[in-house]
Amino acid sequence: MFGVGLGELAVIALIVVLVMGPEKLPEFARQAAVFLRKAKEMANSTRDDIRSELGPEYADLELRDLDPRTFVRKQINEAMQNLDAEEKAAKELPEGVAPPYDTEAT
Description:
By secondary structure, the protein is mainly α. The protein has 2 domains: 8-58; 61-89. The protein has 3 helices and no strands. The protein has helices spanning 6-20, 25-54, 68-91. The longest helix has 30 residues, at 25-54. The protein is elongated and about 90 Å long. It starts with 5 loop residues before the first helix and ends in a 15-residue tail after the last helix. The relative contact order is 0.04.
């Protein structure tokens, strides 16, 4: 999560408790929860708007799919799967055909 480990989160929480004070901490947590909820609603609304503008062929679109690294990785994986399927199909012999045998190789 953003390169922050458990130790860093504990230090941040300790600093928040010291700065805010234990009496203001529940209100701060409530405000943070409201902010996160609104941010999630905005992200979902943006995703839905993009999906509706692009049309039904992009109904399964996720925002992380728009990341160039994810897009390139997905394209490479699909190409590799297609290549593997083509190689497998090329290696299989039709029924009744004997495999090639090189008498000079043995």
